[in-house]
Amino acid sequence: MTTAPTPDTTRCDPDAALRWYQAWIDAWNSHDPDRVRPLVTDDFLLETPTTRNSGWDVRGPDAAADYVRYVLTAYPDLTWERTGPPLLAPDAPRVAFTWRGTGHFTGTLTPPGIPGTGLPFDFVGVEVFDFHDGRAQRLHASYDLMGLLRRTGVLRGGAGRR
After folding, report:
1. What single DSSP character describes residue 43?
2. Going from the N-terminus, what domains does the chain have, and what CATH number goes with each?
3. 137 pLDDT exceeds 60?
4. Which of 12, 11, 20 lies closest to 38 in space, CA to CA?
5. Are 65 and 33 in contact (CB under 8 A)?
6. HSE of 100 in the Cβ direction (CA atoms, 13 Å)?
7. With the C-alpha atoms ordered 67, 143, 51, 22, is the resulting torsion angle positive or negative?
8. Greater model confidence, 137 or 9
9. Which residue of 11, 26, 41, 55 sits 20 to 30 Å from the alpha carbon of 162, by its own alpha carbon?
10. Handedness of CA 58, 64, 70, 72 (dihedral sign)
């Protein structure tokens, strides 16, 4: 069982949240995993459909960079864009952002070692962040992982399945 860090109880500034999220998107789009490190706290916890299905416990800046590296190894041309305004909690430093990710599965999904199919993908999701002292302390992401795996040909029934 994963234990989440305890967040602040102060509200986030909308402009600061937008600047922070743009830095998060820029870090991912730079394809340099180390750029996420200064954006997260030492006790940062990242939870996504990928980590929940694999049991991968992603904690701290090093693990966050490793997660970015894992994703980019499979999808080397992945790009993100924010698709809506930030959604701020009225009584906590929690902000949600909607996004769109596009690219091609041309790398290797390791583990388990599935070679890329070359197929394109376009998917959407939401990321909910808890903040502490201007950095992300927790990320809870939601997206259709099974749909992404079908579109990239990893699961049977996907377009172009080999």
Report:
1. E
2. 14-151 (3.10.450.50)
3. yes
4. 20
5. yes
6. 6
7. positive
8. 137
9. 55
10. positive
* Lookup: tokens for 58: 């992603």
State the residue for tokens 């172009």.
160
Residue 38 has pLDDT above 70, yes or no: yes
What is the distance of C-alpha 144 from the center of its chain?
13
Q: Beta strands of 11-57 (E only): which ranges?
A: 40-47
Q: 131 and 93 in contact (C-beta within 8 Å)?
A: yes
Tokens of 39: 């954006």
Between the CA of residue 53 and those of 50, 65, 109, 143, what are the distances in Å?
5, 19, 14, 12
10 Å Cβ neighbour count for 137? 22
Please give the angle made by the CA atoms of 90, 91 and 93, to the nearest 5 degrees: 95
The closest of 106, 98, 102, 93 to 153, measured between CA atoms, is 106
pLDDT tens for 107-135 read 999 888 999 999 999 999 999 999 999 99
For the entire predicted model, the pTM comes to: 0.88
